[in-house]
Amino acid sequence: MDVTGSADDRPMIRLSGVGKTYADGTVAVHELDLEVRRGELLCLVGPSGCGKSTTLKMINRLIEPTTGRIEIDGQDVTRQNPVELRRGIGYVIQQVGLFPHQKVLTNVMTVPLLYGESRSVARDRARELMEMVGLDPATYADRYPHQLSGGEQQRVGVARALAADPPVLLMDEPFGAVDPVVRVRLQDEFLHLQQDLGKTVVLVTHDIDEAVRMGDRVAVFATGGRLAQHATPADLLGQPADEFVSDFVGSTRGLRRLAVTAIDPRHLEPLDGVRTGDLGAAIDVDATLEQALAVMLREDKPMVAVKDGARFVGVLTPNGVHAALRASLAETNGRAGEGGPGGRAAAD
Ligand SMILES: Nc1ncnc2c1ncn2[C@@H]1O[C@H](COP(=O)(O)OP(=O)(O)OP(=O)(O)O)[C@@H](O)[C@H]1O
């Protein structure tokens, strides 16, 4: 057994003591230590101007840090040719940056062509990517960007960023320009895609709901480019590191936590004796408490049946939701009390 740890234990991205002071003296990022594990989706979240975009752009060297060191896959990024470096890093921005006078297919083909693929290989790859992001090439390939909705343009942006199959993807407010309903749909689609792709993703957002929904872990930045907390969504909501984080995640963090807390079979009641008319549509035992409550509210039922595959395992009532939420909060607080994950200690 390799006691030094396998290659996969090494972080994919490591920032050590990274700082950026702009020429006018603005400290955008201050002494940042941060690691992103392989295949992890890390959200950088915080108020406007706290250094999130600067941090992201330092990773692909669109901005050079003033201090510290950034490694990708163990390699110091400053020692790499920036063009080579960016080949391994997909970059998605809010403004999408599609070429307005080129058709959608051509826009996506640009990247494979840039890397020397033939036109026919590039075309096939572009079609495959369009399908992957949910844009039927038959409908969309020959449209121009202005003939797409904001959400569709954003999907093209994601397809283009994935075209070179980069192991790392940087996303700066990727769903920022679309309305809240489309935003949630794009978030879901991307999470689904990410399950298959397993990229290492750093996603910048100012929206705490997006961060806890999307992130395997979340880094909360405070003004002045200071890292206030780096934790899993559940730990962040259960155990904010300080008053700043607590205010930022908001007084409704208990409610937000519903979205990241799984159903616990210990809090289910037996199915026997329940009147069928009282039951909402069954949900899977892997669902979250929020999804369970949503079914009860949507169907105006006092409980919901829970299934594990084809087998019914019990029913969940609002009391069960409450008990599960309390138990999961107590677990986080208990672990924080033991010095376990929950605060900045969870960072690495
Ligand atoms: N080229 C620059 N010169 C001077 N200051 C800059 C420059 N670019 C950014 N800043 C400042 O650095 C700080 C961090 O900016 P950054 O864009 O990283 O923040 P952000 O957290 O991404 O903000 P937002 O959510 O508003 O996009 C801000 O105070 C900003 O005004």
From TrEMBL:
Keywords, alphabetical: ATP-binding, Nucleotide-binding, Transport
The organism's place on the tree of life at top rank: Bacteria
Record bears the keyword Nucleotide-binding: yes
EC category: translocase
Signal peptide residues on this chain, from the entry's feature table: none
InterPro entries assigned to the protein according to its UniProt record, in alphabetical order: AAA+_ATPase (IPR003593), ABC_transporter-like_ATP-bd (IPR003439), ABC_transporter-like_CS (IPR017871), P-loop_NTPase (IPR027417)
Protein name (Swiss-Prot/TrEMBL): ABC-type quaternary amine transporter
UniProt source species: Nocardioides panaciterrulae
